[in-house]
Amino acid sequence: MLHKSTIAPLTRIEGHLKVDVVLDGGRVKDARAIGETYRGIEKILCGRRPLDAVRIVQRLCGVCHEAHGIAAARALAPIYRVEPPPNARYMFDAVLGLHLTCDHLIHFYQMTLPDYVDFSLAKDAPFFLQNGCFPDSIKSSQEVRHYLESYSRSLEMVARGGRAMAVFTGKVPFGHSIFPGGFTTRPTAEEIFSARENTALLLNFVKEVYLPDVKRLARSFPAYFSVGKGPGNLLAFGGLKALSKPVFAPGVYLNGQKEPFDPKNIFEDTKYSYYRDDRPFPKKEEGYSWVKAPRYGGRPMELTPLGRLWLTPGLKERLIAELKGLGQPEEAAFSVMGRHLARALEAEVLLKHALACLERIDPDAPNMVDVDPEADISGENTAFSQAARGDLLHRIKVSQGRVSQYNVITPTTWNFSPRDASGIPGPVEQALIGLKVSSDLREVGRVVRSFDPCMACSVH
Questions:
Q1: pLDDT higher than threshold 80 for residue 132
Q2: Percentage of residues of the chain with pLDDT beyond 90
Q3: Were 460 and a residue from 41, 374, 393, 406 both cysteine, which residue would form a disulfide, CB within 3.0 to 4.6 Å?
């Protein structure tokens, strides 16, 4: 017999998300991921000076601030006809590497682990972890103690990452030194050394604690290597190009084959979103989410760190080797635990790149090319960049010194999109359909959180 269950709000994520599932005999027959708020940042930007965008887009959410600031700066640089100097390019990549890694740590330890570990068994656990967990949660006192210590250490590591970023961004979050031409900060050799030191400590934590913890959890819950697949389509824009070779390759993974990435194939469908003629319309009869439905050539695509690794030669092979070490086939990458493993591996890659960039910064060389904030510039550009949850697109049009159109397509917009005009569910909805669930719906939360939702970023 069919019946509907709702999780609202789904906690331990960024933003406001409701998930409706229709159950049939203990399995999810249908699912809807529902973005419940509208923020309208794209509309707020229209009519403003272009440089305002670099500040305002960082307020898309409280998690992805530097990622959006750098994407906006990169989108504006060609319109202002400036090329950031080498120092600035190293700084952009280093900040992104640190920022994404810190997000990965928060996602795993603070957002994900409470789904799997019964922290209430540790008397000295923080009060917000004392509410118990699910029947299948890890309850071994030794294991709980181990994860609690890692949980606490991860907070210190995130703080160290923030200190390293602030050397260049001025402050964290919401860096105010980011501009199309580079950075207004002038770090000393001592400050750069401090950033390198904190980055090295963070890298050591990722290699010795974070990655082993992810693999440890995966061994305890091997069934999650076979659930939560989604559409199986991956998209990555490529990036982090400050050094001779880009860290990530662009590409599309469709029907088991890699194809070249063509930006012209991206469009946003709004059939089931609360929009009419690109304007908010909350009373839309068929609408059920404030998230739009991006599609690539008409296909729903997963944009996660898994895609960045899977589409980059060398990194894909490293991921497959780690899966084999866990006794899993390569197709297990497309799963709940596959996504967690991909994030941990990516963190190591990001920090190695960040360290290499930091070592090349010359404290006596320029970090910035000035732009005139009052210039009556006109033009349009699209920047492809990275966020922790997947790849990021910022598109801007400027007319006579004012923003005439701004469009942001975040990875969560792709992953948590509703159905499109063809009735095809979004990636998370597909990942839930067919899922066998317990009465407490714990499996739904675990699948959803494996995509690391940042809902505020997706409802602008």
A1: no
A2: 95
A3: 41
Q: How does residue 1 score in pLDDT terms, banded at 50, 70 and 90?
A: confident
The reported pLDDT for the residue numbered 126 is 84
Report the distance separating Cα 312 and Cα 314, nearest Å.
6
Sole residue written with tokens 């960024």 = 14
DSSP bridge partners of 252? 235, 259
Task: Give, in order, the Cα–Cα distances in Å from 26 to each of 45, 172, 453.
Answer: 46, 45, 25
Instruction: Give the pLDDT of residue 256.
Output: 93
pLDDT digits (tens, 9 = 90+) for 235-250: 999 999 999 899 999 9
Structure tokens given for 113: 């682990």
- CA gap 60, 455 in Å, rounded: 10
Residue 130's pLDDT is what? 78
Residues 151-154: contacts with CB under 8 Å, at least 24 apart: 151/109, 151/110, 151/113, 151/119, 153/205, 153/209, 154/105, 154/106, 154/108, 154/109, 154/110, 154/205, 154/209, 154/210
Give residue 278's pLDDT band: very low, low, confident or very high (50, 70, 90). confident
* Two tokens, residue 16: 């406001």
What are the distances in angstroms from CA 73 to CA 77, 181, 189, 266, 325? Answer: 6, 8, 25, 22, 41
For residue 9, is the peptide bond before it cis, meaning its omega torsion is within 30 degrees of 0? yes
Its domain, for residue 24, covers: 2-458
Residue type at 244? S
d(C-alpha 74, C-alpha 189), whole Å: 26
- Quote the tokens at residue 85: 């100097």
Which of 370, 364, 388, 368 minimizes the C-alpha distance to 192?
Answer: 364
Q: How many domains does the chain have?
A: 1
Rounded to whole angstroms, the Cα distance separating 68 from 183 reads: 15
pLDDT tens by residue, 24-34 = 999 999 999 99
Rounded CA-CA distance 195/215 in Å is: 28
Angle at 383 between CA 381 and CA 385, to 5 degrees: 175
Q: Name the average pLDDT for the chain.
A: 96
Contacts of 268 (CB under 8 A, 6+ apart): 292, 293, 294, 295, 409, 413
Over residues 92-129, the pLDDT tens digits come to: 999 999 999 999 999 999 999 999 999 999 888 887 88
Calculate helix-pair angle for 86-105, 189-205, nearest 10 degrees: 30
CATH number for 85:
1.10.645.10
Q: Measure the CA dihedral 237/235/415/51, to 10°.
A: 10
Token pair in block for residue 70: 């750098």
